[in-house]
Amino acid sequence: MPVAGSLSRIFPFLSGEEKEAFRQVTPIYPFSTTDYYLDLALRSKAVRKMLFPSLEEIDPVLQSFGEDDPLREEEHKKTSYLTHRYPDRVLVVVTNYCPVLCRFCMRKRNWLKPRFFITEEEIENVLRYVSANETVRDVLISGGDPFYLELERLEYLISSLEKIPHVEIVRIGTRSPVTDPEWVLKSDICEVLKETSKVWVNVHYNHPDEITELSTSAVRELQKCGIPINNQTVLLKGINDSADILENLFRKLQSIRVRPYYLFRCDPVKGVLHFSTPISKGIEIIRTLFRRISPLAIPYYAVDVPGGLGKVPLMPERYRKEGDKFVLETFNGRKVIMEDEFPPKGE
Ligand SMILES: *Cc1c(COP(=O)(O)O)cnc(C)c1O
Ligand code: SF4
User: Fold this and answer.
1) Which residue, 36, 49, 205, 212, has fewest beta-carbon neighbours within 10 Å?
2) Is 145 a pocket residue for ligand 2 (Cβ < 6 Å)?
3) 217, 146, 141: which is closest to 178 by C-alpha?
């Protein structure tokens, strides 16, 4: 990727502060992009903030409230690449490579580590662990970006997982349709995915500006392989923390047949805290969206509890229980009382 060349091309367009941020921040949190995403950043303020380093990332006071790994992904590993937290699903981080480094990344701690891709031996360890644990029905392949694994290796990992009878789904998390759609269109990744039967893909759009024509083509290519696609968004201060922007994003996602699955509160990760919003902000936004659009376009709002305690969906309260009755709030804010069951208790 001719990134260095591109950067010198854009350097004249950067503000003094942006240049300073490149100098001070990138030795700690590096910069990387595709030409595609760089061009998008030059046209969209929101994308620019997700791509270009800022001095806030190394603000010693602000970032002292963060940890490198608040979710304890490293501590809770069962093999070098596998985390088993929930009874029915495991997470496998197969690489730390991403062509575009997102400033809000919760796995920033891996950026300066030497680039790794899961080895054949380590794949065998993962397969042994999953085979031996029959409660595991769902395997998440994440990264970095798994679409950049050597394709034969990715194919082997997926097909071996699919052969394990108790594995019902294999989920791949990738941001490449957003940051590098040309890769999805030009590599043989779709050839690999066409042959699978249990794969779901989770993509990661944060802003409507990211849903371009090219990105939509990449998504369509994956859909042609019969793959259901869901989206995870991170709530980011100054980028998408408004009901209007998120309504627009979720509607656009639906119009390309991508289901909004999660809206995450930005985790308290060191180097990312300047993007963090109050927990209540997300609840308020979801409450507003329930008044405007179908739940089919509304994701779960979730907070990952520090300490590795897992994700908790925090949806706005739409009911309360009063004795044997329910008080429900309708889409336009009306309160309605309903019996729990028929015939009503105590009559
Ligand atoms: C997020 C996560 C999962 C998947 O959780 P879902 O809520 O099912 O999407 C699985 N394992 C770990 C360790 C996770 O962090
Ligand atoms: S694509 Fe995901 S893992 Fe990669 S840098 Fe962005 S947020 Fe982090």
Assistant:
1) 212
2) yes
3) 217
Q: How far is the CA of 321 from the centre of ligand 2 (A)?
A: 41
Judgement on whether residues 213 and 79 belong to the same structural domain of the protein? yes
Does 337 lie in the same domain as 253?
no
- CA angle centred on 172, ends 198 and 259, rounded to 5°: 85
Domain that holds residue 218: 6-313
pLDDT at 344: 82
Distances (CA, A) of 319 to 31, 323, 327, 328, 340: 46, 13, 5, 4, 12
The helix/strand/coil state of 244 is helix
Average pLDDT, the chain: 94
Its pTM stands at 0.95
CATH of the domain at 143: 3.20.20.70
The per-residue pLDDT for 3 is 58
Query: What Cα–Cα distance (Å) separates residue 253 from each residue in 117, 196, 316?
Result: 30, 24, 22
Write out the catalytic residue numbers.
Answer: 85-86, 89, 98, 102, 105, 107, 267, 304, 311
- Run of H or E residues at 72: none
Read off the pLDDT of residues 299-339 as tens digits, 9 standing for 90 and up.
Answer: 999 999 988 899 999 999 999 999 999 999 999 999 999 99
Is the bond leading into 333 cis (omega within 30 degrees of zero)? no
* CA atoms within 13 Å, Cβ hemisphere of 71: 19
Whether residue 299 lies inside any domain: the answer is yes
Residue 338 exposure: Cα atoms within 13 Å on the Cβ side: 12
Sheet of 310-313, strand order: 77-79, 82-86, 89-93, 138-142, 169-173, 199-203, 229-235, 259-265, 300-305, 310-313
Q: Give me the number of domains the chain comprises.
A: 2
* 153 SS3 class: helix
Q: How far apart are CA 127 and CA 139, in angstroms?
A: 10
Instruction: Report the separation in Å between the CA atom of 107 and the middle of ligand 1, taken as the mean of its atom positions.
Output: 14
| Most ligand 2 atoms within 8 A of CB, residue of 98, 142, 215, 233 to mutate | 98
| Of 261, 257, 177, residue with least CA distance to 213 | 177
Q: Which of 259, 245, 264, 338 is nearest to 294 (CA)?
A: 259
Based on the fold, state whether residues 169 and 259 are members of the same structural domain.
yes
Predicted pLDDT of residue 1: 44
